[in-house]
Amino acid sequence: MDILIALENKSGFIHRMSLEALTAGQKLASELNLSLSILAMGKNAGDLANNVSKFKADEILLLENPLLDNYSSDGYSHAFTSIIKQENPKYLFMGHTYMVRDFLPRVSAKLQ
Questions:
Q1: CB 3 within 8 Å of CB 29
Q2: Tens-digit pLDDT profile for the chain (112 aa)?
Q3: What Rg value do the Cα atoms of the chain yield, rounded?
């Protein structure tokens, strides 16, 4: 996997900052001829995946688990770390939101 776009889920809809990350990832993938994957996770992740299916991507990953139905930095960081270790993306794009700024430092620490 070359590029992974992790979407922030707003009740089954794509957070506007995730759309910006998706656009940037698509541009880089096109310019460098890289594969692009999109991750939908959390409650209503299936709805989120359906909403993003109209965007150009090589694959859409779906991560659903009752433990992710309600946001917690520990739960999201654990799940996201597992995905990163499993898929091993070269580049990771996410929107600059409060939620991402809350759990992503924990992911970084777990990957050290």
A1: yes
A2: 899 999 998 877 899 999 999 999 999 999 999 999 999 998 888 988 898 888 889 999 999 888 898 999 999 999 999 999 999 999 999 999 999 999 999 999 999 8
A3: 13
Written as one string, the DSSP assignment of 11-68 is TTEE-HHHHHHHHHHHHHHHHHT--EEEEEESTTHHHHHHHHTTS--SEEEEE--GGG
DSSP 87: H
If you count them, how many residues does the chain have? 112
**C-alpha dist (Å) from residue 73 to 1, 44, 105:** 25, 18, 10
pTM of the model: 0.91
Bridge partner residues of 92 (DSSP): 4
Q: Are 91 and 68 in contact (CB under 8 A)?
A: no
Taking the CA atoms of 93, 63, 48 and 104 in sequence, report the sign of the dihedral they define. negative
